[in-house]
Amino acid sequence: MQNLVCLQLVLFSILWILKAEKTVGLDWPVTSASVKLLGIFHQQTDVESKNDMGALHCLSMFRAAILLSQQYNIKLQEEFLGYDEIITDHDVMATVDHTCTKVS
């Protein structure tokens, strides 16, 4: 019985991968976009703390939104959206410095 469940899981995984390659294509995600959004996120202080998982969730949602915009062919001025991100340590001047570096 356990072997049957493992076989079903393997077959399902193979079908899922084949469907993903067929629908998404090989040119996704776009890595060299000229239009980029800058995400500024605070640094997670304690990796084990469940109270500070917001930083990780925000960063993941930002990346997912960019990837979904590319998958659904959403463009700005005929260009796919790309992204850069800055992880801050609550120092405003360092954040401004990193922002200027990314923009220039």
Account of the 3D structure:
It is flat, with a radius of gyration of 19 Å. The protein has one domain. The N and C termini lie far apart (60 Å). The chain has helices at 2-24, 54-71, 92-103; strands at 35-42, 75-76, 79-88. The chain is an alpha+beta fold. It contains three helices and three strands, in the order αβαββα.
Summarize the model shown.
With 104 residues, this protein is an alpha+beta fold.
What characteristics describe this protein?
104 residues; alpha+beta; three-stranded mixed β-sheet; 3 strands; flat
Topology diagram in text:
Blueprint: H1 2-24, E1 35-42, H2 54-71, E2 75-76, E3 79-88, H3 92-103
- Quote the distance from N terminus to C terminus: 60 Å
- The side-by-side strand order for the widest beta sheet comes to 1-3-2
Average pLDDT level? 75
Q: In angstroms, what is the radius of gyration?
A: 19 Å
The gross shape turns out to be flat
The major beta sheet can be summarized as:
3 strands, mixed
Element order, helices and strands? HEHEEH
Strand percentage, roughly? Answer: 15-25%
Q: Would you report the number of β strands? A: 3
- Summing up helix and strand content along with how strands pair, one would put the structural category as alpha+beta
The count of helical stretches stands at 3
Could you name the ranges where pLDDT drops below 50 across 5 or more consecutive residues? none
- Taken together, the total number of domains comes to 1
Helix amount: 40-55%
